[in-house]
Amino acid sequence: MKCKTFLLQLGDYFDVYLPDVRRASKNTIAAYADSFAVFFQFLYESKGMQHTSVSYKNLTPAVFDEFILWMRNEKGYSPTSVRQRMTALSSFLKYASRHDATAIKPYTNLSGTDRPSTVRSEFPYFTAEEMGILLSLPNAGKYLGGRDMVLLSLLYDSGARAQEICDLNIGDIRFGRPTKVKLHGKGNKVREVPVSEEVAALLKYHMGQGGFCGTEKQSPLFLNQSKEKMTTACIRSIVGKYVRLARSSHPDLFPERNYSPHSFRHSKAVHMVEAGVDLIYIRNFLGHATISTTEVYARVSQSAVAKALAEHKIPRPAAPVPESKKVQCELPDFIEKSRKNM
């Protein structure tokens, strides 16, 4: 009966809670299902247990620790992949503990597990997928949402510092092919950076609204709710708001703890390196005094490549097993169905 309780609640979690209550995306549900498929595979290979035999009493600290080591050593998963799978387990157990007292202890056990660090580098940045999620969150149908959408898009596209965004005036935008933004950087240094056609269109939209934008050339480009010049503290608050929203809908992403407006600048630099842009151009684009400051992004990019390769190891073939001796790890139907959405 205890085994049935675990499976019934896991089924409700995938069939009802994730899609209907939390309104998780199909990709998130599929990623969680894949994490449980990996967990069931571990239990089968190391404990000889099929999913029908699993109950909450089996989910001990020792089992969670063994699962982490198995993923690292046997499967070669990166710290990011390991953490994503542990997050999926934790999310379910948190849900289950609200409905069944026997799930509270496993949830506590997992909460105390020492999970592998997923800090990407000496500075936090967003992957291309994460950035796309962030920029899609502001509600453009409202004044504040529209302003936030333009601000975050420009913050990323220009690679500007938060203070440089605050100091932008209407006259600093020069529309053309391409549209350029004049940034007033450190030491009174001025540089012009191009922005994409999409961001240029957003800027035109923003400047035409008149709600959180001035009208004269010397008027601030971005205003706060009091219709005063934007501050870096306000930008920090806006970034924090949308990172929290993004985490709530995509708990398997956004692993860093200290994202800031500067993370947009870091992200732009890393993505430019990954796209093959010359470091000299990136240095000038970001307004760095020396190339050595820019080179750190190249090192981060190489590290990301190494992680990606580790996550996509080609499995080595095992010695063949006679058909009569083969026993497969079975998966619940709701897990198989959810994984097909990937």
CATH architecture of the largest domain: Orthogonal Bundle
The total of helices stands at 14
Order of helices and strands: HHHHHHHHEEEHHHHHH
How many domain regions?
2
Radius of gyration: 24 Å
What does this structure look like?
This protein is mainly alpha-helical. It folds into 2 domains: 2-118; 128-310, Intergrase catalytic core (hpI Integrase, Chain A, Orthogonal Bundle). Helices cover 57% and strands 4% of the residues. The chain is built from 14 helices and 3 strands. The protein has helices at residues 2-21, 26-47, 61-74, 79-97, 104-111, 128-136, 143-158, 162-166, 197-209, 232-249, 261-274, 279-286, 291-311, 333-339; strands at residues 173-174, 179-184, 190-195. A 3-stranded antiparallel beta sheet has the order 1-2-3. Helix 2 packs across helix 4, helix 7 (143-158) runs antiparallel to helix 9 (197-209) and helix 7 crosses helix 11 (261-274). The radius of gyration is 24 Å and the shape is elongated. The protein starts with a helix and ends with a helix. Mean pLDDT is 80; it is low at 117-121 and 301-327.
SSE blueprint:
Blueprint: H1 2-21, H2 26-47, H3 61-74, H4 79-97, H5 104-111, H6 128-136, H7 143-158, H8 162-166, E1 173-174, E2 179-184, E3 190-195, H9 197-209, H10 232-249, H11 261-274, H12 279-286, H13 291-311, H14 333-339
Antiparallel strand pairs: 1-2, 2-3
